[in-house]
Amino acid sequence: DEYGNLELLAGYLDEQLPKDAFQAEVQSVVAATSYIPAQAQFLNNTQVHQATSNGGGNTALDLIGQQLQLLAQQLNLIQGGRSNVPQAAAQQNSTPVAVHASLAHKITPDSQLSKEEVIEIQKPFGAGAKIERQSAALTEEQQVFLKDLIVRYNSKTKASKAYTQEHRAYMADPRVVSGFRPSTKELVYSIVINRSKGSRLWDIDGNEYIDALNGFGSNMLGYQPDFIKNALIEQIETGYEIGPQHELSGEVSKLICEFTGFDRTALCNTGSEAVLGAMRIARTVTGRSLIVAFTGSYHGIVDEVIVRGSKKLKTFPASPGIMPEAVQNMLILDYGTDEALAIIE
């Protein structure tokens, strides 16, 4: 078949037909998108404009107003662009719809905050990337030292640097850019580990390290202690099912209750899940919505706990992409102070 697909057929028609053959129809379609037909105006134009441009408006209403306008335009296209809408109405409807400020939220500290509070709120939170776009001026001696350090460090960890560069385009990991400064950018990449035992780690260049952080606190028994390794191998051979109840669940829950003194245990995949569950239980039992956390504490990746507070007891999202409303039921206090205790009581 000579014109067996749409692309071939379109090419043939483009060659055979005059260039302005469909110009009138194109113009009518463009014109149709610039106004809303009278029969499709489900909301009064003035009401829609007020709802979407009022800074204190309801976000849901804003979105509904925009969706109705888009729907009306689509109906107009389906009807062939026919409408008797006056020119004034068309101009009014072509006014750009204002989007509620919270839809394009950025962390903007309150103007009443002190300079110290503004600086604190704008600091990276948790594992967020810590990036500086400018570097402090270095003396000539410092520049010589830094240049030598970069050469030696890159030589010692060249495989880790190459690995980071190879996977940078598709690996979303803040650690590969955290600590970035223009003057030290050649040093900013993660050391890639491929082996561990006890307190020691080995990278893909063969360098040996002592892990003073114990896996950020999770490896209090060290890497691959024999009794844990053997138990894991045995369980892998037996099976590790997800979904059905496992015969070890009850025994593990009982041991945790005995160890902690708690009445019951819920087994979770992550600490973030455990924190979220604890907050829900607390609110259910007490009937209260406010949760207290302390300055500098970390409670996982749930939006509500990625939060900073001010001395005026206001709370702010500590990461882009978190809505201000998500943290309004959190109160951030300084740990171990009489003032914090008085507020809690």
Note poorly predicted spans: 24-57, 82-109
Briefly note the structural class of the backbone. Answer: mainly alpha
The appropriate CATH architecture of the domain at 140-231 is: Alpha-Beta Complex
Count of alpha and pi helical runs: 12
What value does the average pLDDT take? 76
Please give the largest β-sheet.
Answer: 3 strands, antiparallel
Helix-residue proportion: 40-55%
Question: Could you state the CATH homologous superfamily of the domain at 140-231?
Answer: Aspartate Aminotransferase, domain 1
CATH fold description of the domain at 140-231:
Aspartate Aminotransferase, domain 1
* Rg from alpha-carbon coordinates: 30 Å
Q: What is the number of beta strands?
A: 7
CATH class of the domain at 140-231: Alpha Beta
Question: What strand order characterises the main sheet?
Answer: 1-2-3
Shape: extended
Give structural attributes.
single chain; two-stranded parallel sheet; 345 residues; 40% helix; 3-stranded antiparallel β-sheet; mainly alpha
How would you characterize the overall build of this protein?
It is a single chain. A hairpin with a 5-residue loop joins strand 5 (307-309) and strand 6 (315-317). The chain starts with 5 loop residues before the first helix and ends with a helix. 40% of the residues lie in helices and 8% in strands. The protein is mostly helical and 345 residues long. Helix 3 (45-53) crosses helix 4. The strands form three sheets. Strands 1-2-3 form a three-stranded antiparallel beta sheet, with no helix packed on it. A two-stranded parallel ribbon has the order 4-7. It has a two-stranded antiparallel sheet with strand order 5-6. It is built from twelve helices and seven strands. Among the domains are: 33-104, no CATH class; 140-231, Alpha-Beta Complex (Aspartate Aminotransferase, domain 1), CATH 3.90.1150.10.
